[in-house]
Each structure stands twice: as C-alpha cells, then as structure tokens.
Amino acid sequence: MSAKVVDGKLVSRELRARMKDRVGSLMLKDIKPGLAVILVGDDAASQVYVRNKIRACDSVGVNSTVKRLATDCSEKAVLNELIRLNNDPGINGILVQLPLPKHIDEHKILETIRPEKDVDGFHKVNVGAMVTGNATFYPCTPHGVMKLLDYYNVRIEGRHAVVIGRSNIVGKPMALMLLERGATVSICNSKTPDLSIFTRQADIVVTAVGKLNVLEGGMIKPGAAVIDVGINRLKNGSLAGDVDYESVRTVAGFVTPVPGGVGPMTITMLLENTIRSAEITNFRR
Ligand code: NAP
C-alpha cells in the first residue's frame, strides 16, 4: 500500500481563495481585517515565521503590522504595546510570536490580549470555551489538522486517535478537538513507555513532538491517517517532520509531508481567525 499524500498547500490555496471573497464582502462595508504581530528579539526561526504570516495576510487582503521589540525589552513594554493594540479598532487579531525571552512571563502576556482579538486561541477564556465545546477561535495548528482530515474525508467519529505530544499549543488542543468530534483519544508524551502500544491501535495518529523518527511504519496500523506536525531542521538545512516518512507511507492510508502538509494550514487558520474576528465585530456594529 502507498499512502495518499495530503497536500496542505492545495487545501490552503482553496481555503484562501474563499477567504478573499469574505474580505471583499467586509470591504464593501468599509472594514478591512487587520492583524498585529509582536515580535520580541531576533530569533531566526521566529523572523521567518512572522515574514510568512505577513505575506499570507497580503495574499488575501488582510492588513498587517509588525511591532518589533528588542530581546532585552521589559515585560512592561510588551504589555503596553498589547494594551494599545487591544484598543485599536483597526486591529482584529493580535499575535505574540513565541517563544518569548525568558524574563518575560508568557502566561501574563497571552492573558493580556483581549480574548476577542486572540486569533492564536491561546487565551484561557478561549481555551475554556474550546473545552466546553463553544470555541470562537481554535488554535491554528490543530484547527488546520482538522481541516485537512475533513478535506480528505477521514472519518473521525468513533475512531481511535492518538496524539503524541501534550503542549498547550498543539497536543492538548488537538486531542480536545478530536474528542469533540467523537474520536476516542489517547494522548502520549515523553514519559509514555512504549508509544507503539498506542499507535498500533490508532486510526489517526498526530505527532507533535519535534524529534526525528518518533513514528515508523512498523508502529502503525495499515491504512491509518498519519498527521505530522513536527518540524526538525536537518544538518543540510532542509526540514523534516517527526515521522519516518518513507516507512510510514508504505503502511498508512494518508500521510502529511514535511514541508507542505500541516505548515501551510497553520498560517491559513490564522487568516481564518483574523477574518472571523472582523466578521464578528461587523456583526456587533
Ligand atoms: P513542545 O512544547 O516541545 O512539546 C513537545 C511534546 O512532545 C511534549 O509534550 C513532550 O512530552 C513530547 N515528547 C517529547 N519527546 C517525546 C517522545 N520521545 N515520545 C513522545 N512524546 C514526546 O512542542 P510543540 O510546541 O507542541 O511543537 C511540537 C512540534 O511541532 C515541534 O517540532 C514544532 O516545531 C512543531 N510545530 C509545527 C507547527 C506547524 O505549523 N507545522 C506549529 C506548531 C508547532 P513532555 O510534555 O512529557 O515533555
């Protein structure tokens, strides 16, 4: 068997084409959705992620602005910037690029963003809404994974999904979203003694670890859907996921490549949340 390769670029393109129409409808009412990004420090990967987010905004007609702050800036400086953006009516979405320097309290920063502008879906109000099945903004990466599963008609209800990783931004919300859709969900982490005991039973496996070859072909059930969220930089500079792609693709039914799988969907879901925020604001006017 050779797995169907899930094309995140194709799905993103289709979703973004529809977003352009939604932005067009908002602009007829004099609303241009706006995203503000705060970038603290000069981490190379963060710079690339922010640049890609800004380009994506341009591609669908969303306004964007980046506030750059020095690595040694005070926590107060970030908080002040957030308060200014919270009160700016032209800004529908605020994103603080993570990770932040160690002297800045990430929880405090994320909880200062107004929940209505929290397009990353990390504020505890939005996390709580998701837990109770009433989310406004789903975190972008797991939201993108759900869109991919739906696009390829991968059944979720009644199936066993295994999520490897339990971070607040990927693993935990991923598990909750699968649970919400009726999957039976197992969540594994670095202390799980033998991952394969879980993954061999799974219809859907999502890896969100950040280590090479966490999942190999011999660890999965034939026909399983394998979603690789991980990003690992190889010595030659290229990117690879958590999954041993070559062995997994001979056993799985669906597999996401890295790059070109989940990555493009994450940014597309950021656009989705920003446009949605503008639509909600318009509805309230
Ligand atoms: P994270 O906060 O470092 O979490 C990694 C998780 O993996 C932790 O829960 C950890 O368990 C678990 N883990 C580590 N080693 C393990 C092992 N050998 N077996 C099982 N579980 C193990 O990372 P993250 O922010 O969730 O991101 C995960 C990966 O996804 C990274 O490579 C990141 O770059 C990538 N990512 C990609 C996108 C995208 O758009 N494609 C978006 C976000 C993140 P413990 O909790 O027990 O330590």
Shape: globular
Strand order of the largest sheet: 1-11-8-7-5-6
- Give the termini distance in whole angstroms: 54 Å
Secondary-structure element order, as H and E? EHEHEHEHHHEHEHEEEEHEH
Helical/strand content category: alpha/beta
Radius of gyration: 19 Å
CATH topology of the largest domain: Rossmann fold
The CATH class of the largest domain is Alpha Beta
The share of residues in helices is: 40-55%
Tell me the number of structural domains: 2
- Report the mean per-residue pLDDT as an integer: 96
CATH architecture of the largest domain: 3-Layer(aba) Sandwich
Characterize this entry briefly:
The protein is α/β, with parallel strands linked by helices and 285 residues long. The chain has 10 helices and 11 strands. The protein has 2 domains: 86 residues, Leucine Dehydrogenase, chain A, domain 1 (Rossmann fold, 3-Layer(aba) Sandwich), CATH 3.40.50.10860; 123 residues, 3-Layer(aba) Sandwich (Rossmann fold).
What does this structure look like?
This protein is α/β, with parallel strands linked by helices. It contains ten helices and eleven strands. Helices cover 42% and strands 15% of the residues. Helix 1 packs parallel to helix 10, helix 6 packs across helix 7 and helix 6 packs across helix 10. The strands form three sheets. Strands 1-11-8-7-5-6 form a six-stranded parallel beta sheet. The chain has a three-stranded parallel beta sheet with strand order 3-2-4, sandwiched between helices. The longest helix is centred in the C-terminal third of the chain and has 23 residues. The chain has two domains: 86 residues, Leucine Dehydrogenase, chain A, domain 1 (Rossmann fold, 3-Layer(aba) Sandwich), CATH 3.40.50; 123 residues, Rossmann fold. It starts with a strand and ends with a helix. NADP nicotinamide-adenine-dinucleotide phosphate (NAP) binds next to helix 10.
